[in-house]
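Hi Y.,

Following your request, here is the sequence exactly as I used it, all 302 residues.
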Amino acid sequence: QMVLAASLLSMLIAPFIIQRNLRIAEFFSGTYTRNRKHQIESIQSVGKQLKDHVIICGFGRSGQYLSRFLKEEKIPFIALDIDPTRVQEAASAGENVMYGDAGKRLVLDAAGASKAKALIISYDDPPSAIKILHLVNDYFPNLPVVVRTVDDANMERFRDAGASEVVPEVLEGSLMLASHALVLLGVPLNRVVKRIRVFREERYKMFKGFFHGISDGDEAVERAAPRLHSVSINALAYCIGKPVKEIYFGLCKAEITAIRRDASPVESTPDFVFKEGDVVVLLAKPHDLVLAEKILLTGKSE
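Below is the corresponding structure, written out as C-alpha cells. Let me know if you'd prefer a different format.
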C-alpha cells in the first residue's frame, strides 16, 4: 500500500513539477549561487590577511598532521576541505580550515594563491590532484606544489603536470624503516641522513618495483604497477650467447635491473653475454613481464 500511495503521489505532483520546473531550478540555482558566494567571501576574508603562507588542500589526517608542524614553525597556513563535518569540527577547535573545493580557481584565488609560498595536496585522489596542478600552472605558475600519493603509480604523471615534489607514502614509510634500522645497527647518523637525501634526489630509484607474492593485494592499482620478476635462463633459452644489447623488448617497456651468475651479482653492461644458469631480474608491468620473459626464452613475444 505504501508503494502504491507513493506511486500515486508522484503521478499527481509530476505535472506540477513539469509546469514549474524553471522556477524550481532558479530557486535551487539561486540558493547554490548564494551559498557559493558566501563560501568564497569567507575564504577571502582569511586569505587576504595571509602572505607567504601555505595552502593545504584536504584537511584529513595528513593535512592535520602537516598543519601541526607548520604551527610549530610559526608558518601561516589556510586549509581547504569539502567535508562539512570535518570543517565544522576543526574550525570549532580553532583550526584555520575553510569549506571550499581547491579544484576551483575562485577558491584558490580567495585563499591567496597568488601570494602563497606553497600549496600542498594532502589527500590521495589523482584526478583531483591533476586538476589542481593544471589550475596552478595556468593561473599561479610561480606557486610550488607538493603532492601526496599512496604509492609511486602516478609519480611521473604528477611531475609532468607540474608538481614540484611528489611524496609517495609507501616509499617514504620504507625509507623511514630503513633509516631507523641503519641507526639501530650502528651506522652513523650523518651517513644515514646523507643516504636518505641522495635517495630522494634520485627519485626513489632504489625502490622501483618489488617481488610480488600471493599475499600481496590484487587491487587494480597493484595489478597495473611495475614489479620485479626473476627469470632463470635454461639450456634452450633464446638469449644464450647473445649480449644484452641484442635483446630487444620492443613495446613491452621492460628493463633488466640485475643479473646473477653462479649465485653472485654481475654488471649488466650492453656487452654482457647471457649463458645457461643466469638469473635475470626484470622490471615491468605484469603484462609486459610476461612478454619480456618470452622474448628472453624464445625470442618471440607471441
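The chain has a mean pLDDT of 84.

Thanks again,
Q.
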